[in-house]
Fold:
Amino acid sequence: MLIGELSRKTGVRAHQLRYYEAQGLLEPSRGASGYREYADNAVLTVAQIRKLLDAGLSTEEIRFLQPCVTGTAPDLEPCPELLEGLRTRLRALDEQIDTLTRSRQALRDYVEATERRVPRDSRMSGAE
Structure:
């Protein structure tokens, strides 16, 4: 199938499909006309890519894990690179969450400290 048909079947725009190809996630062949031609299983591959992106994985991580990906869920087969890749990504997310939590608390502290300095009359009336 051509890129337009794959786009219609998956709901993914053609430029995104070309990006997935550039990232090594999709491998179309080239027809005699030079157009990209996708195998029928490209619909499944695109669905897998979208779901893994929704899980917060990068295209680089997805490319690394693709040999372990099957099914529409997608299901992940327990191959060696899969578990270590997922654990690495999970650790990175935990670190980001910790950083964001600290930042949120620091901002909350600044807001509370600043609010305490607002004259009492202004707080009650909702004045500027």
